[in-house]
Amino acid sequence: MLSFYFTGLCSFIWVYQDELIELAVVGIDGLQALIKSVLFIFLLNFVPDALRFVMIGVIKGLGLQNRILLIHMLTQGPQVILLQILFVFVLDWGMIGIWLAKFVVEATILISYIYILTTCDWEQQALQSKERQKKEQ
Question: Under a CB-based contact definition with an 8 Å cutoff, are residues 98 and 87 in contact?
Answer without folding.
Answer: yes
